[in-house]
Structure formats: C-alpha cells, structure tokens
Amino acid sequence: MWIPTEHEKYGVVLASFRGTVQHGLPLEIGDTVQLLEKCEGWYRGFVHKNPNAKGIFPCTYIHLKNAHIKNKGQFETVIPTEDSVITEMTSTLRDWGAMWKRLYVKNDGDLFHRLWHVMNEILDLRRQVLVGHLTNDRMKDVKQHITARLDWGNEQLSLDLVPRREFSMVDPDEISVTELFKLMEHRHRKKETPVPASTHHLFVHMKSLMSSNLGEELEVFFHIYDGRENRPLSERFFVRLNKNGVPKSPEKTERQCTLFVDLGSSDLRKDVYIVVHIMRIGRMGAGEKKNLCSIQYRRPFGCAVVSIADLLTADSKDDHLLKVYACTTESEWYQIHENIIRKVNSRYNLSGSNTGLAVSLQLLHGDIEQLRREYMVLFTRGVSITKKLGFSDIIMPGEMRNDLYMTLEKGEFEKGGKSVARNVEITVYVLDIEGQVMKSYVAAGSGEPGGDVYHSFVLYHNNSPRWAEQIKLPIPVDMFRGSHVRFEFRHCSTKDKGEKKLFGYSFVHLMQEDGRTLPDGTHELIIHKCEENANLQDSSCYLKLPFSKANLPGNNQAVKGTKECFWITSFLCSTKLTQNGDMLDLLKWRAHPERINDSLLKLKEIDGSEIVKFLQDTLDTLFGILDESSQRYGLKVFDCLVHIINLLQDSKFHHFKPVMDTYIESHFAGALSYRDLIKVLKWYVDRIIDAEHQDHIQQVLNATEYIFKYIIQSRRLFALATGGQSEEEFRCCVHELFMSIRFFLSQENKITSPVTQTQAVFLRTFPAVYGELLKIFTVREVAGFVRETLGSLPATARAECPLEAVKLHCIAKTVESQLYTNTESRCILLPVVLRLLQAHMQEQRDLVMCARILTSMLSLVRKYDSTATEPVVSEEVDLIVDSLLVVLMRTILEITNRPQAAGTNMRLQFQDITGEFVACLLALLRQMSDKHYQQLLQAFTSKDDLRDFLLQIFTVFRILIRPEMFLKDWTVMRLVTNNVIITTVLYLSDALRKNFLNDKFDYKVWDSYFYLSVIFINQPCLQLESFSPSKKKRVLEKYGDMRVMMGCEIFSMWQNLGEHKLNFIPAMIGPFLEVTLVPQPDLRNVMIPIFHDMMDWEQRRSGNFKQVEAKLIDKLDGLMSEGKGDETYRELFNSILLKKIERETWRESGVSLIATVTRLMERLLDYRDCVKLGEVDGKKIGCTVSLLNFYKTELNKEEMYIRYIHKLYELHLKAQNYTEASYTLLLYDELLEWSERPLREFLNYPMQSEWQRKEYLHLTIVQNFDRGKCWENGIILCRELADQYESYYDYRNLSKMRMMEASLYEKIMDQQRLEPEFFRVGFYGKKFPFFLRNKEFVCRGHDYERLEAFQQRMLNEFPHAIAMQHVNQPDQTIYQAEAQYLQIYAVSPIPESQDVLQRDGVADNIKSFYKVNHIWRFRYDRPFHKGTKDKENEFKSLWVERTSLTLVQSLPGISRWFEVEKRELVEVSPLENAIEVIENKNLQLRMLIAQCQSRQMQNINPLTMCLNGVIDAAVNGGLARYQEAFFVKDYIVNHPEDGEKIGRLRELMFEQAHILEYGLAVHEKFVPQDMRPLHKKLVDQFHVMKSSLGIQEFPAYVRASPVHFTNGSPRSSCRNSVPNIISPDGARVVARRSPLTYPAVNRYSSSSLSSQASNEVSNITGQSESSDEVFNMQPSPSTSSLSSNHSASPNVTSSAPSSTRGSPQLQDKHKHSRENSCLSSRERPVSAIYPNPLDPAQRATPHQIGDTTLPRSDPNLSAPDKVRPTFSSWSLDSVKEVNNTQFSDTVGKLLCPPVPPRPPYPGSSAKTIRSQSPVPTSRSPQKSSLPPFTPSPTECQSTGLVSNSPVLSGSYSSGISSMSRCSVSEASGTEATTGDHPAHQGPTMPNSVSSGSDELIRRENKTPPPYSVYERTNPRRPVPLPHSLSIPPSVDPPALPPKPHQQRTSSMKLVPASDPRRADGVPHVPRPRPLPRKVSQL
Hints:
1978 residues, 6-stranded antiparallel beta barrel, 43 strands, extended
C-alpha cells in the first residue's frame, strides 16, 4: 500500500535507473528527486527538472537528504536544509553543464576550456565544504572563493547577477527593496570598478649578471631612487653573486627576492627609478695578476637604472635585462646613477656590449596582508622585506620600528707623507654603552643578515673620496642610550703585501644626554689620527674627545682648522625614540613645572608623527595637568586636546583613532574632567556669534565628537566612583550646553558669514554625538535633543546656501545612526526628517543625499515590519506616503526626462540616484497595504487630482519597465519591480473603474492604463520561454506568470468599458495584437477574444470592420518580422475567432477577415523563416515575391507593397540577380508618373518630386539591366528617358542618354551572352512553406548551371526534401504527406518573338535574347510506345507525350521562378513525329546552306557534319524505316485518315533529297582540299540514298525551281551585295517585319563534333533493332570542343518504370539512358527523334495561320483551305504557276512566279488529352552562334523544347566552340504583305483547338504582371511601345516569306503590324495593363 512520506522528502539519485517497470520513472545519476509516497522498498515521486512526469523507482537508488517543506500538502515545496552556498553551487553547476555543452557545439573553445577548469575547481571546493573539516576562517575563504568563481562563470555565460550577503543568496522577499538594490549595486561595482589600491609594492627577483669579464664575486645593491628630489626612497636590498654571476645561495630565495613595501601612489612616477649598484670583491685593479695580493677589496663595477613607470603596464612578472654602465672616472661613482638618469654620456659608458643584469620585476597592489593571501606561495617560499626610508603614507598603530640609517658621504684626507693619494677604506663598528662591539647590528641592506663590522668600498688613489654608501643599524630601543658608532680609516696598499694601515678614526654618539637621539641630517665628524698599532678596544680613551666640529668649544681652533674631515648623513625611523626636545619637556612636566605653559604652547608645533608615537603618554600628561591646575591651564589643555583630536582627522594618522578610543575606554582616568570640558566648550559656543575669527572655534566644534566622548566617559567614571552624585547638575549643564548650541544654530546669517560656516562645522560632527549621549540619557531624551537641535535651524534658508547641503548630510547621518533604529526615537525624529527631505526633493536639490536618506529610512521600515510594532510601522508608512509618494514619483519623472550631462561621472551619478529613487518607490509601494491605498485615494479631493496621480504613477511604471532602467543581468531586481507594479495596478484598477467610467469616462487615463499593461506583458524579463528550466521553475514558484495575471486584468477592464470600447478602436488593436503574440497559451486564450469584441463594436458603429482589418494587417507585418508569433498562434487565432463569430449576423465578413489575416500570417511566418537563413537563395526570394503579391493583389497595401519591392530588390542585388532586380524595381517605377507632384522622404529616397524619383529609378534600372546583360530592356527605358529630356529641352542629358542607348546596342552586337537553362520544379508535401506547398514552378537557372547542379542546389536549399525518381504527376498521398518531395526536370522555352528568330539576316547575338526572354510557355516531351512494339521497326508505335506549361508571369521577371498557371498534355502520333523530324532537319539544312553561301560561316565543318549525318543515316536505313512504317499498304488501309500526312511525309523526303543535292553542290564549292575525299564519299552515298528512296528524278513540283536562299537581312537589298544566285526567279517582294513577332526558334547543341559523328549516329539510327537504342546516346554538356559525358543526377533523373507512363517495358540495357531521357530535355537524344512541331491547337489559331515556317499543313483545315505554295527564296525547284483563287486573293499580285500546290495534307491524328498551350520552343545549352548538324531522320535534333545533340567523340576544328549553333525557325508567325488584299474568313475551328479569340481571352484574363516593361505609358509624350519588351498581342502577326511548298490559308486577311484593327473588323485588344495607382506621396 502506498503511504505518503513524512520525513523522506528529498533525495539524490545514486545510480541511473532505466524505469523499465510499469509506471517506472527513468533516473540519471545526480538527479534530485522529490518523494511523494513509499511502498515496500519503492518510492513514488518526480525529478525536479521535470516535475510533470511522476513515477516509481527503488529506494536503494536514492540517497536521502534533509529538507525543509513549504506549503505542506498537495502543492508543497521541498528545500534542502544544506548550506545555501552548496545549494546555489549545485543548481548553478547544473545550469552551466547544459550551456557548457552548447559552447562545445558552437566551437567556442576558449570559454569551453576555462569554464571546464572553473567547474572542476568548484566541485573540488564543494567537496571540501561538504566534508565539514574546515576551520571557520578556512571555510570563509573557501566560500568566498566559490562565490567569486560562480560570479565569474555567470558573467561569462551572461547569466543573472546573484545578490548575496555573507556568501549566501538573498531572498528578495526577506529584505527591503532598497537593501536589495544596494546589494545588487555593490556586487556590480565590485565586479566592474575595483577600488584602486593606495599602497603598492615592488617585487624584485635577482637572477644573474651576464658579462664576459667576470671571475670575481659580486655584490648587487637595489634601491628605489627619487630623481626629482635626488634622494633614495628606500633602504637597500643586498644580493651576493658568485664568480659566475648567479646568487651564491640559490636555495635561499629570501636572499635573492625582495618586496619593496609601502610605496605610495605618488611614488609611481616616471622620475622614480630602480637603481642597481654592483661591487666586485677582488684586486684593486681589475687587470692585476692573481698572485700579487691575497687581500680583497670592495671595488666599483657598474650601475643599472630602470624607471618604475615602465612596470605599470606589466600585469605579471616580466623578466628585464638591464644594461650595466661603468664610470669613466672613479671619482664620479657616487653620482653615476644620476648621470645615467640625466643621460650625461660623457661620465659613463657601457661596461661591455654583452653585459646585462637579468632581473624579474613586478608591481603588486594592496596592503601587505592582502598580498599574503593572494600570493601565498611568494611568502611561504621566502621573500625579504625592504622598507621605505621613513614611515608609509598611513601609520598603523602598533607598528614597531627602530632603524637608524647612516650614509657614508665623503671624506677629506691628507697624503700623509706619501707621493700619491691614499686608497681609503672605512670600517664601521657599533659599540654599546660598555664599549663592546654589538653583534649583527651593521647591515648593508635587507636580503643578507647583519654583521659585526662593515667595510666600505675603496676608491683608488683618492684623498677626497665620495662614497654615498648607505648602511642600516637596526639597534634595539633599550640599547640606544650610551651606544656609539666608530669609523676607522685605513690606507689599502697596492704593494705585494697588500696591507691595510690604520691612520685615523671618527665616532658619533647615537643619543644625547637629555634623551634625544642623533638629529637627522649631515654631520661633519672629526678624524682623530692614530697609529697602526693604536688600541681602540677601550672606547673610554676617546669618547671624551670631541666627535663633531659642530660640538667643538670655540677655543679649540686647532682641531677646527684641520683639513681632514669625514661627513655622514643620519636618518632615524623609530616609533619609540624622538629627536624632539619639546616633546620630552612636555612628557617630563612634573620635573619642570615652570615649563608647562611653554610646553603646552609648543605642542601645536611638534610634528604629528612625534605626537602619535607618544599619544597615550601625551594624553595622560594633558589630563594630569588639567586635574592639578584646571583653573590655570584648563583652556590651554582644552586647546591642546582639540589639536590632538583634529590631528587624528588627517588621513595619515586616521588609523590612530582606535588608539584614542581604546585610551578613552581603558586608560582615561579623568573623573573630574567633564566639568572643565563642558565649561570650556560652552564658553566657546557662547562666543561664536560675537567672535571675529571663527577658525579656532570651528576647530573646537570639529572635535566635538571626541570632546563628548571624554565628557561622557569622565561623568561615567565620576558616577561610578561616587555612586551617581551630581547627576542633576550634570544634566543641567548638558541642557544649558544644548541651549547655547540651539541659540547659535538658530541665527540667520549671510551666506558668506563665518557664523554660517561654523554652523556647518557643528552639523557635520553633531550626529557622532548621539551614540555617546545614549550611554547616559534615555532614547527619548536623546531624540528630544536631536529634534530640538535640528528644529532650531532656520527654515527659510536659500537654495544656494551651503548650509542646506550640510543640513541634509546631518539628517542622513541621523537616519543612519543607532538612535534612529529605535522605534521610539523614529516616531520623534521622522516628522523633522520628512519635512527637510520633502523640501529638498520638491526643489530638486541635493538629490543624491535625498536618495541616500530615503534608502536608509525605508530599509529600516522593512526591517521591523514583522515585529510587534506593526501599528507603529503602519503609521510610519502613512507618514512617508503622505509626505513623499507624490514627490518621489515627480522626482523620478524629472530625473529620467532630464537630458544627460556630457560627463561620464555626471551621467553615472544620475543613473545611480535614479536606481535608488526607484528602489525607494518600490519599497514604499510594497509596504503599502489595503488601508494605505484607501487612505491615499481618499486623500484626493477632486477627480482632477486623482486623474493626475494615476497618469503620473502609470508613467512612472512605464519608466520602471524600460530595459535600461536596470542592468542586463539584474533579473532579480526586475522581477521584484514587476511584482510590485502588478500588485499596485490591481489596487489602482478599482479606482479607475469607480471614478472614470460611464459619464465620468476619461480616455487619457484608460489609454495610459492599457499602454502600461501592454508593455508590462511584453517585457523581455517576463518571457519565461527564454529562461532555462530551473530559472523558469524558480520564477513561477515565487511570482507565477505575471503576464497571465496582467492579461486577465486587461480583459476584465476591457469588459467594463462597454460602449467606451469604441474610443480604443482601432488604436489598441496593435498593442493588444502584440500581447496575443506572446507565446503563452493562457494569455492568448484570454486576449484573442478581445478582437471579436472590437469587430462587433466596430460593426455596430460603422456597419463594417475595415478599420480593424486594416490595423491588424498593418501591425502584423512589423510584429512578425521582429520574431513574434508562430504557427500555433495562427491556428489559435483562427479557431478562437471563428468560434466566437459563429452566431454573429456579420459572420461572412468576419470569416473573410479572419481568413485574410490567417493567410497573411502564413506568408509572414514563411518569410521570417526564410530570412533567418544566412545566404540569399530561391526560397527567400520566392517567399518575398509571394508576400509582395499578397500585399498588392489581396490587401492593396501600397506602402507595404513598396517596402517589400525594395526588400526583394536588395535580395536580388545580394544574389547578383541584376535582371530580376531591374524587373523588381520596375514595380515601383510603374506606380510613378512623370509629374511634378512632391513626394515625401521614404525608405532611402530623399524628399523630391515624382519626376525626379522616376528618373532616378529609370537610371538605376538601366544600370542593373546593363549588369544583367539584358540590354534590350535597358534600351526601352533609355528611349523613354530620352523622350522626357527632349520634352524638357534638356539636351545635355538627352545626349548622355542617346550615348548610353548606343553603348547598349554595341554591347548587344559585341558581347557574348550565355543562355540559361530552364527547370520545372514541383514542391509536394505539407512540410514545404505555404507559398511552395503542392505547387510547380519553372525556374531560370544560373549561367552554366546544368540539371545536376540545379537539383543539387535545390536539395541544399531544402535539405530535408526527398528527390522524386519519376516525372509523373504525384498522387494525393504525396500531396498530403508530412514530408517534402522535390520533382525536378529540364524544360524548354517557347519564345514569343518568332519573327526576329525567323529572319535570315538577324545576328545570333540578337536572336539569343529573344530565345530566352519574355517566355510564358515551356514544353517537355516524353516518348513512349503505344500498342504492340515492333522490334523490327519501332517507329510504328513510338508516340510522344508533350506537356506544355504556362506560367503566371513571364521569365525573366521579379523572380528566377514562377508558378505554373496551366498545364496541357497532348500526344503526338508516330507519323506526325516523323513529319516534324524531317521538317526540322530540312530547315536546318537550308539555314546552314544559306549561311555558307552568305559567307557567314567561317568554317564549313557544321555543314559538312550535317550533310554527313543526314546522308549517312538515310543510306543506312534511316528514311527507309519511315517508308517501312508508314508507306506500306497495311498502314494506309488501317489509317485512312492519315493519307494526307503520308503524302506530306513523302513530299518532305523528296524535298530533303533535293536540299541535300543542292547542299552538296554548295559544299563542293567551299570544301577545303583536305576534305575532298569526304565530299566524294558524301556524293556517292547520296546516290545510294536516292536509289534507296526509289528516286530517279524529282517530281515536277520539286524540279520546278532551283533552291533559292535569301541572303542577309530582308530589310534592304542594297545592304547585301551577294545576289540571290540560287534562285533563277531573282528577287522577291519581302514585307518588312516587326521585330516583335518572331516565333520560336530551334536551338541545337553541338559541343563535340568529329568525323566519327555520322558513323555513330548512323549506327544508332540506321542499324538498331529497337528505337530505344536512340536513348542510349549520352547528352553533350555545352560549348566545349572536347567530347564528354554529362548525365543527370540519378536521384532525380532516373524515371519510373515505363509501365507507369503507359509505354512498354524497356530492355534492361537501355533503362538508364531511357530514364535519363525522361527528365532532362536539354540532355537527352530523344529530341533528335521527336522534335517539337506546332501543336494542332497552335496551328489552327487565326493569328498563327500562315505562320508555320516549317513545311507542314494544318491538320484541322480542309484541303481547299490550305495555303498554296507561294514564291520563296527557299524554293528548291522552279515550279509552274497554278491559278488558285484563294491564293491570289490572299496574296494579291506578286512579282515572282507562282509555285504549284503541294499534295493534300490531311488533318492530324494527334489526340488532344488536355488543351495545349501556345507555341512551344526549343532549348539548348549551347551558347555559340553556328548551328550544329542534325542527322535525319532518326537522330535529327528536336526543334522544340527538348533539344540536344548526341555526344560525338573525336575532335572538331578549333573554332567550333564559338560557332557551334545556329537558330532555325520552327514555330509560325504571320507576315504582313506590302499591299492591301481582300480578306477571307477561315473556317470554324474544331472544339479540340482553341481559337485565336479564346487565346486572347486567356491572355487577357491572366493576372498581368505589374512589372511588365513593355506595358509602360508616357503621360507627357507618347512613346512607341518597345517591341522587344512587349507582350505579343493576340492579333495576327506579320507573315514570313513562305518556305518551299508551304501552304498558306486565305481564310485570314494579313494585316500590317501597324494596323490597329483586325481583319474581321474587330479592334485589336491589347494585353490589359493595370492603370498605375497613385503612390500616396511615397
């Protein structure tokens, strides 16, 4: 049975548990669990990181821990009862763990490794704490270390700052908000701005001396030197080096490392140096022989100097190599360092080029104890301390020091009868009072221990040596008296013996007889001469002699006149000995009572350091004099006491205050002194007003604190001694004293009055007296003193008076004092404090101090609110609220609105006080209860006052919510703030409802309320979704989700508004929408219904809710682009509102609005997802296009539409889609007109006229068209601009524009353009974005991009997509799948401008543009077998499934891809296919022959290869296959309807033979000599071909006229000098054709051509057993002259089994090629067999009749209606004229012989499966200008969409890659004749064929692209519509010259291109264009 656990509530998982049992809960090691129930060894509970998942687990897996339970029961919270630091550590490490892993994923290696080390360190410290074996001090250090590491990690990971007190986290509910703010600020300041240390230390580590001339031991001396004052700042650090230049005692680090301590900040200057002197120990001369002398001398070696400023930038120990310099002359040694510093180069030089001193130097900061903690290793390893000369800047009490420093300065010596000067060495001894040498008290410096004797260095042959050598004598204080120092002078001989001969001595006493020590300064000592054997051991024999010339009696002239002298400088640094006689006189006052007066007067002149040395003795002396002679010396003693007290105010002696405090508490014994002190103090206070000089009185008042301390302590001693006698007298004296004080404080004086300054001095010291008074008086009595004293201050003080600031400072000290913490005293003092505080805050004066006071007050209120004094606290809150709440809010408003000062300090200051005032306001509001709010609201006497208050507090709250109010990581403070705000708002909302509704409605207050609520909910710090799980859990447990609380309050308030809701429609739609976008389900459920309410009220008011719709749409875009909203929101918005409006009368319009908004959300979400991607891809562009069109067509939001135009434009520029960028910018351009209407500044456009902006856009578009090589479009815009310039007579710009236009024409002719591939892409499945889902598109590929590259790019853009392996349309399961499927294959464009493409003389550079631009339709062919497949001849059953795709907009356009609008499918019969193949090959042959004749071909190879391919294939059975398939009796009997087509096929075969014959004739003329054998072979094979066809001679209609090819451009015959040499009929009339009406062109690929090509092709086509062999040909890549294989990617191009397409199963060996052929129309050879004829629907349309350039008949017209063959430059034979009425009626009188009609060509048997789209066209990857050859019939290239060439091995001529293709016309176009001729109406079209009018309707109904360049109009001056960019109209295009035997129908009248009317009298309806809407001042 499961039993709830009582004590077992919390545990830690010891081992992972899989939870495989029923109801088992998986656990991971280290998880913390909360236990709910227990049963037989199992627990039931949950893991803290996922409290929603509850389950069971074994007890043995859990380690139980003690825990504290809150809210026991169903919603209980368990808190482990462990150290708070441990708890924080555990939770923090868990959070870090997840983030640490993310750092690894982000590859942030540096932080990853640092965090790893810190985490390990924290875990180690955690173990130490948990073990519990640490001492208290060690535990404190460890916790401090842990918290420092936690703070570091939180800062590095951008986590929240944790407020702590004594290492423990602080619960914000347990302390005042002001205290919380202080803690946060303290931690921030500690983190950001460490307090600069005032004490610094220099660490020196001597490493080695590097020199080439070593060999002697060395002594190195370091000291710090002041270059400004030319004196040392420190004693010396002494290191001994061995002969190798390294320290002699390397194991003793204290002898090579030192710390120069107690350097002040003033010592870190550039002119403070580290000076190093180096002495060698050895022979007198450095070069002397070793055996000369055994005695060693100390001799100068070198000096090094480095500035201490160079070390300021070094953070760690840096090694320095110091240059060592030597003196040029030894006599300058004493000042070598000064010469180096001053750079007196003549006096020193480098001691050697490779000599250097290696030392490590580092500056350390902080006091010495701090260094011991931070650099523990340094001190444990050993380091000597080198002290400063003199005391540090701050003298610490208890510091013991007694060092005498003596410097051997110089000497003057006589020669002593020698010829040369002496080598003088000084020996120094210290002797005690008994004349014994003191051991170890002579030291050269720190580092080495002191010795008994010291030897100076020797200067060679110098009778006036200057040593400047400092020694240290650390003699104990008790040994100073009677001791002296003796200096012995010896001459050091350089002879063999090297003797040191004594010749004199000097001495000096260290203490005088009166107890004063040797004065600091220079002393000239007498040198007493003596002999070598003189006995100086007995000091008594010379101590009676004079030692200094200054002490000689006046009659001793003999000694005074001697020349021999010795100078020393002494400096005493002692905390016990003094050199001051006045101090000694004062301390010995009882011995000389007569000197008391003088001693007291001289005390003020004694140096402060001397006084503090003897502070206790001095104070005892003063109070001793006061007790014995108070009447006589009372005033003087008081003044001396004041002097000493003020001396301790100095920062240097500040630390001696505790010494005085200790003296007062423990050593002061003046029990009667209080009377005299009170008396004298009152005497001074009473004379303040009348005194002329206030300086001394101010000094007295400045010492008030310690004077009162002496008074109170004296009274306590007296009361203790006497049992409390004279109590009343004492109280009376104190009251009288305070009366005097109040009187002088109450005086109003001028600002500059000395009395005012004296008042200020007293107020500064007065709060320090409270604590002393409390020792004797009660709290209420002291509070009364304070209240009356502060109340006596003049109330009418002026703002500029300095006393005001001091008053406030006094109040601050009062509030912070111990007195104010007492509740009784607070009640007395609070009114005084509030009155003064309110006055200052109202006048905005001294706000920093006001904030400080208020913070202290409110901290105390919070501190005591849980005690028994609740009523008192409530009363205090009442007082503060009444006095300061409104003032406080006004202060915050003024501070935050005040312009920030320029200085950083001022800005920080304002920021600090803003935070403090905010904390005070929050603390005050948090203390307010229901009663306080009621009293506050009732206190407002009028509605206006209440209204102002509410507006003010709402504004303040909005300021508090600002992100910049608190620092980024102050989340704790932000949450507390929000909790206070929402609590206050709940109170105030009642006041809002009661006072400002119905007839008292106030819009401003309600608007402010709603605005506050909205920004409250949207705060980043409340978005719990962005928090870590643990942080989110903590916030929810403490505060709940405050967003939901505020949302419910908004809804409640909104419902109360009633009809006043209309005031907030549509203003609040945007803010409320922003609230609903917050990803909180409860909040959304609460807020979304408000929109229904808004719609309902707007419907009532206006009858519609257009305003609601408009506002929703406007706001959605901006909010969602900021990242707000998601798919869940879209669904919720839709479902909630649809449910709400179900019963509304306006349901239909509501559903429409909801649907519109929902669709917009879909697009905006897709757009946002795409924009998140880094690179520009098709998905991003497509999404932008979708959104742009939605704004245009469905929402009609002009401004948003234009904004997205420019976003799309920027995307295109970034992707270098310059053509698409131009089309995009045209969208905006077309909205503008050539007018002078002013436009406002918008986006990046300045304020300008509409004409100027349109001009700028034109120029930008032209520039981008130029960059995109779309020059034809740029020409149109150039013309339009030129017309505008011309209309304004702006000839300069007109000239530039014409030159630009000319340059574009030149680029068309001179520069090569690459023709892109086109690909059909299907996006299937629900996982695609909305704008792609289950749609198909045609995409324009990039340059050189083939199918494989394109499909790889698409798969990269959609990495989760699955590539479909077939081209069949997918079924519904694919459409509805929760996945992404991509179906990609290549398609071929069907050009619109057929006229240009069919013209014989138009350059390929021009044609290439029209082949791939302005393309609406694309085609894809798929061959299949229908019925039984004949293995002997597969052409019998080989059909073609032709798919035509029509786009919504033409390519190129504003995107590289557009959606397919219409899909049509037809099947082409085998016979029709054969006709198309031969027709196309005939056309190609004609084209190549014409080019060869007109010398356009630089190389005849293309013609050779084409002839070779056709003849080879025919000879090997190619054409014979067609004969076998279609000319046999069985076929003719079974297909009687194909009779005409069979005849047509036979006619074309004969025609091909005739063309080949003529082509061979031309070939013979131009063929080079080396190719003659090939030509002969071709001629022979041609005869075989004729024989195989059964042709003995050509039919009459073929022989009638020779082949005639037009040459050059048909526009002007005079441009072409080559006559029509082939046609005997001469010239013919050619109508001038419009460049717009060129039909589609066939393009062929020929990348690798070779002599083997024909053989390969013939082998494939003529000898294969199956037509599937054809599909095995590999496609050709592109314009390369080398053969290559190029196959489609298998994951896309491999097709489904042929059975799925209704065709027979292919042989296995052909499957791969067969499948490839089904996808890549550009790269499969199927197009060689199945070219693209005009579809029946196209051939039948009226505007295309007579436009069929290919020799074919219309299957849907009866025989009499066929167009008879007319004159043509393409006719192959001369023909007899046949009178034909229809023909003559159609053409009129022609100037050339007529051509007989061809045999009848019956209608097509092609089955129309779906309506076929207009003219298809071919596509090819080739980018060159010459046509490839196309073998016929079976390998002839497709002339339609699916065009490609087989791979031809071998090599071709070197120039073929640039001339590898020519364009051959295929689709039809109508040509205008030169005369007027009667029109003949054509027959009615069959239902299966769309008529011309149907086509017109289709094109008109299509949504016209707003970016159409060729639909432009010119409002100023009509500009001819540019044909190169215009959409072809539906009227009949001009006719082309008919080809041989081309039949033309007379059913249509040919209308010239310029005729605006159609033949049937119906005016031409151009493609509709939307009128340009006015751009609303954009």
